[in-house]
Amino acid sequence: MLAKRFVVPFAVATLGTGAAVFGVLHADAAEAATCAVTYTVTSQWNSGFTGDVKVRNTGSSVVDGWTLGFAFPSGQTLASGWNGTWTQSGTRVTVTDAGWNKSIAAGGTVAVGFTGAWSGSNAVPSAFTLNGVTCGATATATTSPAVTRTATATPTATKTATATPSATVTKGAENCTDYAALLRGKYWINNNVWGKADGTGSQCVWENGLTGDNLSWGTSWTWSGDPTKVKSYAGAVLGWHWGWKATGTGLPIPLSAGKNVRTSWNFAVTAKTATIMNVSYDLWLHSTGTADWQDQPTDEVMVWLYRSGGAGPVGTKQATVTVGGTTWDLYKGDIGWTVYSFVRTSNTTSADLNLTDFTDHLAGRGWLDKTKYLSSVQAGTEVFTGSGRLDTSAYSVKIS
């Protein structure tokens, strides 16, 4: 989340109806070099992509002021960047420190990020320089996370939801392809494995059909690795997710319009092993009503309905509040955009909410400007570790 929330592995991943090869370049320092660079394509779609670049000072003295240089090898163009001043001339890209991050201690790292456009192919750069010194480069198939979430407790006893999916639901075919997109009406199911690099495992999704506004879907997962870092967020998406895949979503809408965003969700969680995870809504907001793939969000609002194993949100607890007749612990954090998390003080597997109540609460605190646009409503599972399954018998979002 420091730059972008989503990481794509070095593999062919299905995005909508197309496929693209994503990659990572890890530049290990040459013997005489004093820098090492990790270049990661963190997401790619249609003609756009986002990237992370981490620069490590492998020398014995502090770097005080830096300029990073590299060349796009296959005609890519820079759209925007952060944590530095980004420019492009021809194929050459230059990034100068932002002032506050100009000092890189010996052994220290600075991270920058960008969005860009590509066509044909999206090959990774082959060489980098730091203040004119070449960093030795070797292409590898490793990835690094764009963002982490931190669990606030160690795993506890496994919890299993008592609700079960409707007996009339027939499970659809599984799709276990990373970042698979299953479109159904105004929704799509995203097999999002953005933190996969921090563990070992896999995730599958399926959709069982749409009746009116009600979508039935599910996901299963098995993840091991760092218990403090999220591996995946399989979810049902309405609206934006670094681009658009469906029409008729009713989004984006300005918060100032005062529209209701009513949602219902009935699900069952089956934990096969001790599992650190949560089931939550994820709302994304922008300062523009025309957000597309290149537009970073300004705010993220999460509403946690269920959690197990001590999973905790980004940021620090601000208050315990009552919203929609239910008590929530409210957290606030910053990962390059502001993240607000409403964590239900007791688990539930059934929700009937007006999500506008949550954005109104934040606006009433003076934290969220009502000129912002709600671009996306998502509902899914953040999984840290463990093996389990979520079955949604009915999920809907209605904007009025």
TrEMBL record:
The keyword Signal applies. It holds the Pfam family Glyco_hydro_12. Residues 1-32 form the signal peptide. PROSITE patterns: CBM2. InterPro entries: CBD2 (IPR001919), CBM2/CBM3_carb-bd_dom_sf (IPR008965), CBM2_carb-bd_dom_sf (IPR012291), ConA-like_dom_sf (IPR013320), GH11/12 (IPR013319), GH12 (IPR002594). It comes from the Bacteria. Transmembrane segments: none annotated. PANTHER family: BLR1656 PROTEIN, XYLOGLUCAN-SPECIFIC ENDO-BETA-1,4-GLUCANASE A. It comes from Actinoplanes ianthinogenes. This is CBM2 domain-containing protein. Keywords: Carbohydrate metabolism, Glycosidase, Hydrolase, Polysaccharide degradation, Signal.
